[in-house]
Design a protein that fits this description.
Length: 102
């Protein structure tokens, strides 16, 4: 996919350089194919043919459990460290005029 998509778009561009009408028609066919895939994947639930709804729900539950464990460990680590001390007061030094210094 990493090489195929740029290659396909370069091919469409090359056809467009050779023939404007051919490039436009090929590009519209490409957009139609992408729209058809998105329609199938989202509205016809094609994504559930890869993973069932039960498998997706199990995966999300495992992910939530793992995330809670990681965040819980990080929170314990942060609580064991000493609290931050506020910075000490800063003294502002005024610039000295070199002409007045002898």
């Amino acid at each position: 996919m990493f090489v195929a998509l740029p290659g396909l778009l370069l091919a469409i561009s090359a056809v467009g350089d050779a023939s404007l009408a051919g490039g436009v028609i090929l590009f519209l066919l490409f957009l139609g194919a992408v729209a058809g895939f998105v329609y199938y994947w989202v509205w016809m639930e094609g994504c559930y043919k890869v993973l069932s709804k039960e498998q997706r729900e199990e995966g999300l539950a495992e992910l939530a459990k793992a995330q809670a464990e990681v965040l819980g460990e990080e929170a314990d680590c942060l609580r064991s460290s000493p609290p931050r001390q506020p910075p000490e007061a800063v003294t502002v030094v005024q610039p000295v005029d070199r002409k007045s210094v002898v």
